[in-house]
Amino acid sequence: MSQTPESKSGEEAPLIFVVGARGVPDVEGGAEKNAEMLFPLVVASGNYRVTLVGLADNIKSEEFKGVRLMKAPRSNFLKTDKILYYVTAIFMAMRLRPRIVHFQGLGSAIFLWAYKLMGAKTVVRYGSADYLVGKWGTLGKLGFLLAEFQLRFADAVISVTPALAERLARRGIKGNVHVIANAADPLPPVEPSAEQPVGDYILTVGRVTAQKNVANLIRGYELFAKDVANPPKLVVAGGLDETDYVEGLQPLLTERTVLAGKFTRSAMAPLYRGSKIYINASLHEGSSNAVLEAIGAGCSILLSDIPENRDFGMPLQNYFDPNSPESIAEALKRALSDPQAYVADAGRYLTWTKVAERTLDIYRGIAPFHGSEIERPDALVSAS
Predict the structure, then answer these.
(1) What is the pLDDT of residue 140?
(2) Tens digits of per-residue pLDDT, 345-366?
(3) pLDDT tens across 33-80, in order?
(4) Is the dihedral of CA 354, 357, 360, 362 positive or negative?
(5) pLDDT of amino acid 9
(6) Whole-angstrom Cα distance, residue 301 to residue 133?
(7) Angstrom distance (rounded) from CA 320 to CA 165
(8) Is 114 in contact with 29 (CB distance < 8 Å)?
(9) What domains sit in the chain, N to C, each tagged with a CATH number?
């Protein structure tokens, strides 16, 4: 176990309690990638301790890079695996008495009021307007809307894109909102033993869901492929646990379309680097970690024309209408004709060290650690 941060006078550093990431490391999902990269840097700053509670089957050790890990049970209720997890986390927090509770997504903030009653400061990462996702029924959407309403009472809200911050502002939530995007981190070196992809392919990464718009992506790809001799395959790398949606895709699939399933994050580097084009066709999105990983890998990028993706600031040629298979087909055709013109400069985007510094500024503003020296930039850099 790593040493607990404390001040020169022996004061123990304030505890940050993280709820809403299913687990770390190498767990699929944007909240999970953000947690894996951010919170070890928060610990490395020396100003705060961090405890993260995740789903039991995703937590394989007691600690990850200085972050204490705790397990909560999984349930299957109202189309989510997190209700029992959220309730269990409340009782854990009652015992631990954290100074700050950091919610990694909108859904986890449904019980924000309970943590406020404990006297904790609250920070919510707002990564997507989840109630817009088609799979949620009436109760699920009401739950997300209740969580969003409570954001006005949070001590800080971290919106991952300006577009999402504008959505909150239209709902009267703006005085406590900060915009901190995810980072375009360079991919790790490919392990010599890693399986290398074979042949030409177009890549998309993410859970196979209606939100990711995989059905229209396949339709658009097939429109493109039918007029091309030896077209690159379409590889969809992501979890297949939304079984009803996956079954609905079966009539659309051909030998050119590969539902490759879920990969560990560490195994993704060769997939990104080997792709002809990286395409994100999402209908609703935040600051997509997969897009940023593709940018970091030097991929040619195509994005759905939604406000959150427009915040990446790419040229108009990189965008397409996600509701139009014809627009998707045309985008693939033009990108493959000049792939280099669709490569984005990774240097324009944040690093995880910068994300951590900005997040620490928020923590210091709501719960300063008076007993320690504040600046630890060298520690942040060495831990990143």
Answers:
(1) 79
(2) 999 999 999 999 999 999 999 9
(3) 999 999 999 999 999 999 999 999 999 999 999 999 999 998 876 566
(4) negative
(5) 46
(6) 24
(7) 23
(8) no
(9) 15-183+350-383 (3.40.50.2000), 201-346 (3.40.50.2000)
Calculate Rg over the CA atoms of the chain.
21
| Residue labelled with tokens 């392990």 | 191
Residue 264 has a pLDDT of 82
Supply the pTM of this predicted model: 0.91
* Neighbouring-strand partners of residue 17: 51, 101
